[in-house]
């Protein structure tokens, strides 16, 4: 059971509010609860589980036990197989979950997804129904309007939130404000990546990309882009959801031989504002598709959630 002192001077224990003015037996009851709390509970750290222990999930899990350790406890990691998270969990001193059920049994405050859009579709609603907030890196899963609405409804039903970190880009705040000013605003996203960062995407249908010349490999809506390049343009879907939606956001994907950074340029324009938001960042050494910045955007989001100042 968790107990904490609210600012008005009221102790809250589970769902029971107990007035500060209570004395005698009631007070000793409160005091006993306090003394039975673990150190972590006394500090009221938020409890987090991570899905995915690849390039980005590893950075997030390490940060939870490192720079975020004063605010958060890493409960455990869920991998693609029960074996996958065993080693990282051992190193970080948390659980290696064998199933989603095991993760949910821990009742985390937040579940961070860094596993892919299939995992979002497979687990998202169940995580929310269990009362955990969800932080999604595979934002592309939300391009599908029907799925997005059903996940939103699942969150509302359980009074939970779905957090969309800025990922490998920035400026989602300005796009959201611009959309409020003018619903007919325009957004175009240009993604530039080295050929090996695009390899294996269903949209290439096995085509080998040139290692000598730049080529436009995709041009269309963000909705089509994420279907064709599901591991490359989550950023475009995030930009689209901040603005005019995946069907109305234009995306171009360019293969650039020799390019060391993943580069994303978002052009937004409404009646009175014009923005160019360019982010170039190094990919993760173990996964050339993903910029490490995306993992740090989750770390930053978690830090923000624990801060009295909200960005
Ligand atoms: N929002 C943004 O700006 C960005 C989002 N992303 C997205 O973030 C996600 C994570 O990226 P990254 O860490 O680089 O990817 P990785 O491929 O490096 O890691 C993902 C890990 O999750 C595992 N996995 C797959 N399915 C499941 C599942 N159902 N449950 C648990 N684990 C699973 C994978 O295992 P296996 O390899 O065996 O499948 C893999 O180990 C990707 O979807 C990526 O597209 C990436 C960059 C930017
Ligand atoms: O990490 C990046 O540069 C972008 C990315 O893969 C994505 O948006 O899916």
Question: Which helices and strands appear, and what pairs or packs with what?
Answer:
Elements: E1 3-5, E2 10-13, E3 16-19, H1 24-36, H2 39-43, E4 46-51, H3 55-65, E5 72-78, H4 86-92, E6 95-97, H5 100-105, E7 110-113, H6 117-129, E8 133-136, H7 145-157, E9 162-163, H8 172-181, E10 186-193, H9 195-198, E11 215-221, H10 222-228, H11 234-242, E12 250-255, E13 262-269, E14 274-281, E15 283-284, E16 287-291, H12 292-305
Helix pairs in contact: 3-12, 6-7, 10-11
The chain binds NADPH dihydro-nicotinamide-adenine-dinucleotide phosphate and oxaloacetate ion (OAA).
What fraction, in percent, of the residue positions are helical? 25-40%
- Radius of gyration (CA) equals 22 Å
The quaternary structure here is single chain
Number of strands: 16
Which CATH architecture of the largest domain would you pick? 3-Layer(aba) Sandwich
Distance N to C terminus: 31 Å
Number of helices: 12
Element order: H for helix, E for strand: EEEHHEHEHEHEHEHEHEHEHHEEEEEH
Q: How does the major sheet shape up? A: 6 strands, parallel
Strand content: 25-35%
Overall, the morphology is: globular
Number of domains: 2
CATH superfamily of the largest domain: NAD(P)-binding Rossmann-like Domain
- Given as residue ranges, the uncertain stretches (5+ residues, pLDDT < 50) are 1-36
Binding site for NAD(+): 168, 234
Active site: 264
GO molecular function: aspartate dehydrogenase [NAD(P)+] activity; NAD binding; NADP binding; oxidoreductase activity, acting on the CH-NH2 group of donors, NAD or NADP as acceptor
Pathway: Cofactor biosynthesis; NAD(+) biosynthesis; iminoaspartate from L-aspartate (dehydrogenase route): step 1/1
């Amino acid at each position: 059971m968790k107990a904490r002192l609210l600012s008005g001077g009221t102790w809250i224990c589970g769902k029971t509010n107990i007035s500060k003015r209570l004395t005698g037996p009631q007070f000793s009851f409160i005091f006993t609860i306090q003394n039975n709390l673990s150190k972590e509970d006394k500090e009221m750290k938020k409890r987090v589980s991570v899905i995915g222990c690849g390039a980005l999930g590893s950075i997030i899990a390490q940060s939870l036990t490192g720079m975020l350790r004063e605010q958060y406890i890493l409960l455990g990691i869920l991998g693609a197989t029960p074996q996958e998270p065993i080693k990282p969990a051992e190193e970080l001193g948390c659980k290696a979950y064998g199933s989603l059920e095991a993760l949910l049994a821990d009742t985390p405050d937040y579940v961070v997804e860094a596993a892919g859009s299939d995992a979002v579709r497979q687990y998202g609603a169940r995580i929310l129904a269990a009362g955990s907030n969800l932080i999604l890196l595979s934002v592309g899963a939300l391009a599908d309007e029907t799925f997005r609405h059903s996940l939103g409804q699942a969150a509302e039903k359980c009074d939970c939130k779905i957090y969309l970190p800025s990922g490998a880009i920035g400026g989602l705040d300005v796009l959201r404000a611009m959309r409020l000013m003018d619903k007919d605003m325009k957004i175009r996203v240009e993604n530039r990546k080295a050929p090996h960062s695009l390899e294996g995407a269903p949209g290439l249908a096995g085509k080998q990309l040139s290692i000598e010349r730049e080529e436009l490999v995709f041009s269309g809506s963000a909705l089509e882009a994420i279907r064709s390049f599901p591991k490359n343009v989550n950023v475009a879907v995030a930009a689209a959801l901040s603005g005019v939606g995946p069907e109305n956001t234009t995306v171009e994907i360019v293969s650039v031989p020799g390019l060391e950074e993943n580069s994303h340029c978002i052009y937004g324009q409404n009646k009175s504002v014009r923005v160019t938001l360019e982010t170039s960042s190094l990919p993760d050494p173990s996964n050339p598709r993903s910029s490490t910045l995306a993992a740090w955007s989750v770390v930053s989001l978690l830090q923000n959630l624990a801060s009295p100042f909200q960005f």
